Every structure is written in C-alpha cells, then in structure tokens.
C-alpha cells in the first residue's frame, strides 16, 4: 500500500507528464488497431477475396492496335475475330481440361434515318465510310449485358430485353437518343443497313436506358464519330440480331459483325492458365487477353489500397515516434530523483520496493492509455473505416475489428508497458548506496 500511495502521489504531482503518457499510449494503441485492421482488409482483398472470385476473360485488340483504329475505314474489320478464331481458342482450352462458360456480344454500325437521327460526333464523314451513325449491339445473355464495355446502364422506362424469347424488333435506346427523336416506349423507328443505304430495318422501343457511370475515353461526348458515342448505342437480343440477317459469315466491310466472346472462369488461377493456353494457340500479336472483372475489382479496391499505404506509414510513425516519446517521458520521470530515492533508502525502504514504486509510476498511466486506446480503436475502427471509404463501393464492414487483432495489440501493449516499467525500476536497482553520504559540490553563485 505504501508503494502504491507513493507512486500515485508522484503521478498526481506531475499531472501533465502523466497525462502525456496516457495520451501517447492511447494514440499508439488505437492507431495500431486501425492500422492492423486495414492491413488485414488489404490482405484479404488481395488474397482469399481475390482468388475466390469468378473471373471473366475477353480477347480484345491491344492498346497499340486500337491506337491505329479508323472508324471511317471499312477495312478495319480485318481486326475482328471470327467464330472460327474463337473456336480454335476454346478447343485449346477444353483440351487442357479447363472448364468455362461463355457469353458474347455482336456489334455493327447502322445508318440513321428520317425517323431516328443520331447525336452527332465532332467529325461527320459520309455514312458509306463509317457504316452508319448508330451502333447496334446484341447481347447473348444478361451476363453479357452486365459486362458491357461501354458501361453499365439502368432501365428508366419500359422493359428489359428478353434474351431467351423470339422478339425480332425489341430494342433499348438511350435517354438522350429518345429525347432527341421524341420517342417513347412502344415507338417504332427505322435504321439503315451498314453496306446498303436502300435497305432498312424497323425496330420498336422496348425500353429506355441511362448509363450509371462515366463513359470510356472517346466513347462519350468526346467521340469523333457519332457511332462511337455510347449514347447512340442500340441494344437488342442476339435473337433479334440474327433474325434481321446481321449474323453473316459472308459479310464484308462494316457488315461484318464485331464478335466479342466473354469466357467465365472459376478463379484467378484458371484465368492465368487460360491466358497461357490462348497465347500458345497462336493468338495474333494485335490482340491480348484481359479480364474486365479483375480490372473492375482492382478499381473497386483502389481506395482501400491507397488507405492501406497511408496507414502503413501511420503505423511506422505510431510505433517509432510513440516508443521514443514514451522512453523520453520515462527518462523525464526518472530525472532528478537521486535525492528522493536516497532518502527512501535512508529511512529503510529497500531497492526492490523503490523499484516497484518506479515501475508503477509508468505502468499505471501506460495501462490506462492501453485501456483507452483499446476502447477507442475497438469501437472506432469500423465507423472510421466506413467514413474513409465512403463512396468507394466497398461495404461498411471492409475494415473491421476481430479477436485476433485485439489480442495481438493487447498482448504487445502489455509487454511494452511491462518493459517500460522494468526499465524504470532499474533506476532504483542501479542506485549506488556508497555515495549517499558524500558531500555535494556547492553550486557556484
């Protein structure tokens, strides 16, 4: 009781120093909890969550190839992959006993008409050169529509496409195209054939859509050609596309459909194998294999990665600077205590007893700081993580506390507190008793 009373008296006598120890310890602990929780979330995002997801794979022209694209040159269709090309790659994948499912889109330009005009681009070449001002795109399944490289969209009026039905005329048009042409759900309009200006097709507005995100570069209002502006995209089912004669193996120039097959694989490991197999199956140098789903995933977790980078720096600062501050405060606590400790020895206190007192002077505030930091970090990590990741599309529980992190920080905190207390107790154990009664040097005035 005597030791505790003396320790408490020393702590209250130097109140600001005691408060500083509590605050520094609490900040170190709370920062450690948040930093380790963020590290774990980042590890999970790049580990089990990354490897366990289903992965889509597509074969598209390389960036270098796309840089040479001329939408007013009908010979560009030579870069399109055919059904025969995809069959070669699919057969190679199946031979390697790699399982997959697939879906696809097919697209080609169509001409505007008196009843349906396109939103113009910055360049306006003749439609004989471009094939038309609109892009007609068919989806084989709902998954193909969801992976649309022009961007995801939502229906704001009408009905969705029926991918298993036999509707030959039902299409979706953009809100901007509908407003421009004063069309509503149920309205009919005509478009012209990309290779034959005298041939037309009648379609019916099944629904009106609006995109949910920003347009890819060159496919929004910045598009040079009208057909490249995604607002001029007409979406339909594969049945309607084929029923109107657009699915042709003998077509030439812009009447050749741009076929894009999307392979669905069971995981990242299978995707990596898929890439190697397709490249080995003589994939032309003008094309490459990529994964829209993995690209979307990396974009989704980018805010978490950025936050993790910052919190790793926060952990380094908290641990290094915090440790130095606590050691400095411990040294300040032990400074100029020789006279006090000598008096205690003279009146009969033992070195171990004095050492225990000095240990308590550091243990009590650091343990209090540890408790405050555990409460602040334990209850504050999840809402703080949610606030910092707000608007990123990640769930509120992306950065969350668990028992493993709590026990780890608690164990390390207790060990650090005990270590600091032991260092303080050495001040008493190293006190020389043979110099207690030596005369002191007079201070020069």
UniProtKB/TrEMBL annotation:
Coiled coil: none annotated. GO terms for cellular component: plasma membrane. It is a multi-pass membrane protein. Residues 317-428 form the ABC3 transporter permease C-terminal domain. It comes from the Bacteria. Signal peptide: none annotated. It is found in: Cell membrane. It holds the Pfam family FtsX. GO terms for molecular function: transmembrane transporter activity. The keyword Nucleotide-binding does not apply. Keywords: Cell membrane, Membrane, Transmembrane, Transmembrane helix. The chain crosses the membrane at residues 15-36, 313-334, 354-377, 384-403, 409-430. This is ABC transporter permease.
């Amino acid at each position: 009781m005597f030791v505790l009373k003396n320790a408490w008296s020393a702590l209250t006598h130097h109140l600001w120093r005691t408060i500083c120890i509590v605050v520094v310890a609490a900040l170190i602990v709370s920062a450690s909890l948040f930093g380790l929780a963020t590290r774990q979330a980042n590890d999970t995002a790049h580990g089990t969550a990354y490897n366990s997801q289903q992965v889509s794979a597509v074969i598209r022209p390389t960036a270098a190839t796309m840089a040479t694209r001329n939408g007013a040159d009908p010979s560009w269709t030579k870069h399109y992959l055919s059904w025969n090309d995809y069959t070669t790659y699919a057969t190679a994948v199946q031979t390697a006993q790699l399982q997959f499912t697939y879906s696809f889109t097919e697209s080609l330009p169509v001409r505007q008409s008196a009843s349906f005009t396109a939103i113009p681009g910055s360049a306006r070449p003749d439609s004989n050169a471009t094939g038309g001002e609109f892009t007609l795109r068919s989806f084989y399944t709902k998954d193909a529509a969801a992976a649309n490289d022009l961007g995801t969209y939502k229906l704001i009026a009408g009905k969705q496409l029926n991918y298993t039905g036999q509707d030959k005329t039902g299409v979706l048009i953009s809100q901007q195209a509908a407003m421009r042409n004063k069309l509503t759900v149920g309205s009919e309009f005509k478009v012209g054939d990309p290779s034959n200006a005298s041939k037309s097709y009648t379609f019916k507005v099944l629904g009106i859509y609006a995109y949910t995100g920003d347009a890819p570069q060159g496919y929004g209002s910045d598009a040079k050609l009208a057909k490249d502006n995604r607002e001029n995209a007409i979406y339909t089912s594969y049945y309607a596309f084929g029923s109107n004669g657009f699915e042709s193996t003998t077509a030439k120039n812009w009447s050749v459909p741009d076929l894009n097959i999307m392979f669905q694989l069971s995981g990242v490991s299978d995707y990596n194998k898929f890439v190697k197999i397709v490249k080995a199956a003589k994939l032309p140098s003008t094309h490459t294999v990529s994964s829209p789903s993995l690209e979307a995933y990396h974009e989704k977790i980018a805010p978490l990665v950025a936050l993790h980078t910052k919190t790793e720096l926060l952990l380094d600062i908290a641990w290094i600077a915090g440790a130095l501050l606590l050691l400095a405060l411990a040294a300040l606590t032990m400074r100029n205590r020789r006279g006090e400790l000598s008096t205690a020895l003279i009146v009969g206190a033992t070195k171990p007893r004095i050492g225990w007192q000095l240990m308590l002077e550091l243990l009590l505030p650091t343990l209090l700081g540890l408790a405050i930091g555990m409460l602040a970090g334990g209850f504050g990590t999840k809402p703080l993580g949610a606030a910092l990741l707000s608007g990123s599309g990640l769930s509120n529980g992306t950065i969350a506390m668990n028992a493993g992190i709590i026990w780890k920080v608690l164990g390390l905190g207790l060990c650090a507190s005990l270590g600091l207390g032991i260092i303080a107790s050495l001040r008493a154990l190293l006190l020389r008793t043979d110099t207690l009664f030596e005369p002191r040097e007079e201070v020069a005035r």
